[in-house]
Each structure stands twice: as structure tokens, then as C-alpha cells.
Write a structure and sequence with these properties.
The chain is of the alpha/beta class. The protein contains eleven helices and twelve strands. The structure holds iron/sulfur cluster. The site of iron/sulfur cluster has 11 residues, from loops. Iron/sulfur cluster binds next to loops.
């Protein structure tokens, strides 16, 4: 489903000419698997909120920016973002099966976005990686790299296999949740074709995303030898309460996905209605610490605007200097460290 007309026909939005202005700016994409998860009778449905466009997207604020995490400042050539010495992003494709309304790369993805690398651009990107021995990890992101066919992914992985200094290949994807039928034997074989260690970061934001088909996709991936980690975005009206976040993180762990990043929402244009305050995010992750197992704890991170990388912004639980600290427990109690005389 890629147009306002299709959304109207499915009963997901009312006919509204102004909504067409949203569609002209930002791509729309809803897969059958996502449609199954949407409760169109609930005006506050957290699944609809993630995928169904709204007029709120036409409101931009002065602090928002087209490239909120500063990819372009660290892009030496097309398709490569080299922000940290030992790893690069390889953005082979800028399309996705769904278009999330809060997407931090919403100005780059979609049919009018940056497109797919040409074969000459891909050759140059692979050569860039091959020439730099400090690159230990290649992170395939986009767009969603799993929209590529298993044949194209296998080709790419076989080319990375020839670069000895690359030890880890990581994929960031929404596909196991939003198009789980793509995760078949051919896809799993392609993702592991390099012989390197393959990590796959599953993007999910609400426990309802763990449908039976998504769980089966996770199982195929992990049984295929792929290490699964999570990434989620903290989103107002979707998962900004402790019960939902706890269920989301437990859901990951139950599916052999280690919680990794909980992102503070980025300053992407037209996404102010999703943003929570840093303080409320910190309170939520502090509450998680008391509620659920250490296995389920994500790292709460902010991508510093301008391309300065990620910062861990979980509640600062220790302050002090010269060997004397005050450490805060998960209920907010403060304790001296080292403790005074017993
Ligand atoms: S799948 Fe990722 S890149 Fe694609 S629209 Fe959603 S958040 Fe953006």
C-alpha cells in the first residue's frame, strides 16, 4: 500500500486533500503483515501511528533538519558513511518495504530518495572498504538492505568475504517484522555467505510487532547462525510507557534477540509529535532497570546532531569526583560510594 487512495480504500485514513501534501513529501509504505497488525478502530493504535501518515508531519520545527544524525558530513563517497575508525555504514539501497512516519532518514529514503547504488558506485564503496585495514565491521543499512534479493545479497557478501580485515557484517532491518515471508532459506544463506560473523539488528518498537510470522522469521535467522540484536526508537504514543517497553524488551529476549539500542527520537522533519523529552526517556529506562532482567536492558542513546556519533544518555546514575561518588539506585535512592563507616 503506497498511496493515499489505497489507505482510504483500506479505511485507514479519511479522504483529505491536505494529506496528499504529506504523501508528496514523504513516502508511504504499508505491507500486508503490517496491515494485519493495525487496529483501525483504535484512534490511538500504536501500529497505525508508526505507519499511517498524518497531517502532523507537515509541521516542522526550527531545530529539525533533513540529515538529523549528520550522515552527509561523514560520507566520503556515495553509499559509505565513515563516522568511526573501525566501522562503516554501507547504504546500498534507499528503499524500504514500509515507510516509518518517524524515520530519521525520511528525506533520503523512498522512491524519490537517494535510490540504489549503481554497480560503479558499489564497486567504489567495496574498494573503499578494501583499501582501509582499520575497517573491522561493515554495517548494511539504508533504506532496508533486506529488500535486495538473496542473489544480490549473496553477491555482496561474497565480495566482502574477500576482504580479510572485515570480520563482522551487520544488517539493520525491519523486514523480519514487516515482511517476514522474505526470510526464507535462500535469504538466510545469502546473509551468511561471507563466512564472516553476521549480526542482524531487528528494528521493532512495540510488542505487537512480534507476530507468529515474525517469530518464525527470527527463529530461521538465529537457527541459521546469525546473531540477533535489537534496535527501537522511543516514540510518544507508541512505546513511551514502562509496561510497553518492558514487554517489548522481554519479547526481544524471548526471541533470542539481545536488546541493544533504544534510540531517543532524532530531529527529523515533521516528527515532533513523536518526540519525548530526554528526562522522561531517562525516567523510563531507570524504571526498566527495576522491572525486568538485566538481559532485557537496552542502552538508551542519542545520535548527536551534526554527525558527532552516539552518546549513552541513560539516567546518569553516578556523580562525584576525587574518589567520592553518589550512586543512584533504580528507585531514585542515593548512596555514597565508597560507603561511609558501617
Ligand atoms: S525501515 Fe528504517 S530506514 Fe526505512 S523508513 Fe523505517 S526507519 Fe526509515
Amino acid at each position: 500500500m503506497k498511496s493515499i487512495d489505497a489507505l482510504v480504500a483500506a479505511g485507514l485514513v479519511e479522504p483529505d486533500p491536505t494529506l496528499r501534501a504529506v504523501a508528496e513529501k514523504y513516502a508511504i509504505g504499508i505491507t500486508p503483515a503490517v496491515l494485519d497488525l493495525i487496529d483501525s478502530n483504535d484512534p490511538a493504535d500504536p501500529m497505525a501511528r508508526q505507519f499511517v501518515p498524518t497531517l502532523a508531519e507537515l509541521i516542522t520545527t526550527p531545530e529539525e533538519r533533513a540529515d538529523p544524525i549528520g550522515d552527509l558530513a561523514h560520507s566520503p563517497i556515495e553509499g559509505i558513511v565513515h563516522r568511526y575508525p573501525d566501522r562503516v555504514l554501507l547504504k546500498a539501497v534507499h528503499v524500504c518495504p514500509v515507510y516509518c512516519r518517524f524515520c530519521f532518514r525520511r528525506e533520503m529514503v523512498g522512491p524519490q530518495g537517494l535510490g540504489t547504488l549503481t554497480s560503479a558506485e558499489l564497486d567504489a564503496a567495496i574498494a573503499y572498504i578494501a583499501e582501509r585495514e582499520e575497517i573491522w565491521e561493515v554495517i548494511l543499512t539504508g533504506g532496508d538492505p533486506l529488500v535486495l534479493s538473496p542473489r544480490r545479497l549473496r553477491d555482496l557478501m561474497e565480495r566482502l568475504a574477500e576482504i580479510d580485515h572485515v570480520k563482522i557484517v551487520r544488517f539493520h532491518t525491519r523486514v523480519p517484522v514487516v515482511e517476514p515471508e522474505r526470510i526464507d532459506d535462500a535469504m538466510v544463506a545469502a546473509l551468511t555467505a561471507s563466512g564472516k560473523t553476521t549480526y542482524l539488528a531487528v528494528h521493532a518498537n512495540h510488542p505487537r510487532e512480534f507476530s507468529p510470522a515474525a517469530r518464525a522469521a527470527f527463529r530461521r535467522l538465529s537457527e541459521g547462525g546469525i546473531v540477533l540484536i535489537s534496535q527501537s526508537v522511543l516514540l510518544k504514543g507508541v512505546n513511551d510507557d514502562v509496561d510497553t517497553l518492558a514487554a517489548l524488551m522481554r519479547g526481544f529476549v524471548e526471541n533470542r534477540i539481545k536488546p541493544y539500542y533504544l534510540h531517543h527520537p532524532d530531529l527529523a522533519p515533521g516528527t515532533g509529535h513523536f518526540r519525548v523529552s530526554v528526562e522522561s526517556g531517562q525516567a523510563l529506562v531507570a524504571a526498566l532497570r527495576g522491572r525486568i532482567s538485566g538481559l532485557c536492558q537496552p542502552t538508551y542513546v542519542l545520535d548527536i546532531p551534526g554527525g558527532h556519533g552516539k552518546a549513552d544518555i541513560g539516567a546518569a546514575s553516578i556523580v562525584g569526583r576525587d574518589g567520592c561518588f553518589t550512586v543512584r539506585d533504580w528507585q531514585g535512592g542515593e548512596h555514597a560510594y565508597p560507603p561511609g563507616d558501617a
